[in-house]
Design a protein that fits this description.
Blueprint lengths: L7 E7 L10 E10 L2 E9 L8 H7 L3 H5 L4 H11 L5 E3 L2 H14 L8 E3 H8 L8 H7 L11 H18 L10 H8 L6 H9 L1
Parallel strand pairs: 1-4, 4-5
Antiparallel strand pairs: 1-2, 2-3
Helix pairs in contact: 3-4, 5-7, 5-8
Organism: Vibrio caribbeanicus ATCC BAA-2122
GO molecular function: 3'-5' exonuclease activity; DNA binding; DNA-directed DNA polymerase activity
Function: DNA polymerase III is a complex, multichain enzyme responsible for most of the replicative synthesis in bacteria. The epsilon subunit contain the editing function and is a proofreading 3'-5' exonuclease.
Length: 204
């Protein structure tokens, strides 16, 4: 059984919201956790083959000038597929990152065998008193150490990893130590009103 504390936490910066609309990845950042310790990281800018909008430049701080000399998406994603081989995956608002991961890997005929869990959905169940469940809000709410950089892929992946491990550790308050990845997925799909019951049953 795979532990929730041994995963790859990833984050994409992109040219827009949907690969179906022609948007592409422009940066990938990821950290590899083994038993709650960061053992490796991956960060690359990637050239999508067209100019990004001034909005995206301002939002991410990633400029067209930076991307001009970056390797292609295909080159970066081929390398990234090896980084995540055999690992379960975490992202904050995972449906977004999964769409881009799937689309970019499909272009290079690569895949992955792990499953996804969403730290945002888990946080909605386990940190119900947060003012919002955006990554920055949760970081402030839980006083998670960060360097103040948001909307850059590696920095976001690093704080998402800290948030994820914090939630895994806080389950100890319910008598749940070393929860499995599958159990965290179950939490993310449980109605908020039934989470306490799920945790009580799991402890028992």
């Amino acid at each position: 059984m795979t532990q929730a504390s041994s995963v790859v936490v990833l984050d994409f910066e992109t040219t827009g919201l949907s690969p179906n609309m022609g948007d592409r990845a422009i940066e990938i950042g990821a950290v590899k956790l083994v038993d709650g310790q960061v053992v490796d990281s991956f960060q690359r800018l990637m050239n999508p083959g067209f100019r990004v909008s001034t909005f995206i430049e301002g939002y991410t701080g990633i400029t067209n000038n930076m991307l001009r000399t970056a390797p292609s998406c295909d080159e970066v994603m081929t390398s990234f597929s090896q980084f995540i081989a055999g690992e379960n995956l975490i992202a904050h608002n995972a449906s977004f990152d999964k769409r881009f991961l799937d689309a970019e890997l499909e272009r290079v005929n690569c895949g992955y065998s792990g499953e996804f869990a969403c730290s945002l959905l888990v946080a909605r169940r386990l940190i119900q008193d947060a003012p919002s469940h955006k990554l920055g809000e949760l970081v402030r709410h839980r006083n998670i150490e960060n360097d103040g950089v948001f909307h850059r892929a590696l920095a976001d992946a690093q704080v998402t990893a800290k948030l994820w491990l914090l939630m895994v550790e806080e389950l100890e308050q319910y008598g749940i130590t070393s929860p499995s990845f599958t159990f965290m997925q179950r939490i993310s799909k449980t109605a908020k009103s039934k989470v306490d019951q799920l945790l009580a049953n799991h402890r028992a």
